[in-house]
């Protein structure tokens, strides 16, 4: 792994806010002033394809990057775009493995919702957003 890749992987792995490529670039420049934006984007693509980090995509938002760690899912607020991790329960993990066996390569669980802060900050707007979505749970 190159120094640039180690730097980028370190930034993603130490972040808990699922940084965008632009945010990663800004932090990388603070630690390695000579790094170019193209180098960051190229290495993000390489690190994603090699399984060192993963890319998260949400409609209407820039792609974000996440650490590869224990199985976890994401709570995605459709109002503010915030993303929070949650643990995948051992029961869900066992159920997935029972259906797919050890052939599971990855598992992406995303729950779209309206976070408490958005619901409280603008109750009318949050309620309108909820009405625009058909509840699927």
Give a topology summary:
Layout: H1 3-14, H2 21-31, H3 37-49, E1 53-56, E2 64-67, E3 72-77, E4 83-87, H4 90-100, E5 110-113, H5 116-121, H6 123-132
Parallel strand pairs: 3-5
Antiparallel strand pairs: 1-2, 3-4
Helix pairs in contact: 1-2, 1-3, 2-3
Rg computed from alpha carbons, rounded to a whole number of angstroms: 17 Å
* Cα shape: flat
Structural class estimated from helices and strands: alpha+beta
Taken as a percent bin, the fraction of beta residues is 15-25%
Q: Count every beta strand, where a strand is a DSSP E run of 2 or more residues.
A: 5
Comma- or semicolon-separated keywords:
two-stranded antiparallel ribbon; three-stranded mixed sheet; alpha+beta; 17% strand; flat; Dna Ligase, domain 1; 137 residues; single chain; Arc Repressor Mutant, subunit A; 2 domains
Structure report:
It contains six helices and five strands. The radius of gyration is 17 Å and the shape is flat. The chain has 137 residues and is of the alpha+beta class. The N and C termini lie far apart (42 Å).
Short description:
Helix content is 46%, strand content 17%. With 137 residues, the protein is α+β, with helices and mostly antiparallel strands. The chain has two domains: 1-68, Winged helix-like DNA-binding domain superfamily/Winged helix DNA-binding domain (Arc Repressor Mutant, subunit A), CATH 1.10.10; 70-137, 2-Layer Sandwich (Dna Ligase, domain 1).
């Amino acid at each position: 792994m190159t120094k640039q890749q180690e730097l980028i992987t370190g930034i993603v792995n130490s972040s808990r806010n699922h940084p965008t490529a632009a945010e990663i670039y800004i932090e990388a420049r603070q630690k390695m002033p000579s790094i170019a934006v193209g180098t960051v984007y190229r290495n993000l693509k390489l690190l994603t394809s090699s399984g060192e980090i993963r890319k998260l995509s949400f409609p209407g938002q820039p792609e974000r990057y996440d650490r590869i760690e224990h199985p976890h899912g994401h709570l995605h607020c459709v109002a503010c775009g915030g993303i929070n991790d949650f643990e995948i329960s051992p029961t869900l993990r066992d159920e997935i493995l029972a259906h797919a066996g050890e052939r599971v390569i990855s598992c992406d669980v995303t729950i779209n919702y309206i976070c408490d802060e958005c619901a409280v900050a603008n109750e009318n707007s949050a309620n309108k957003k909820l009405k625009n979505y058909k509840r699927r749970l």
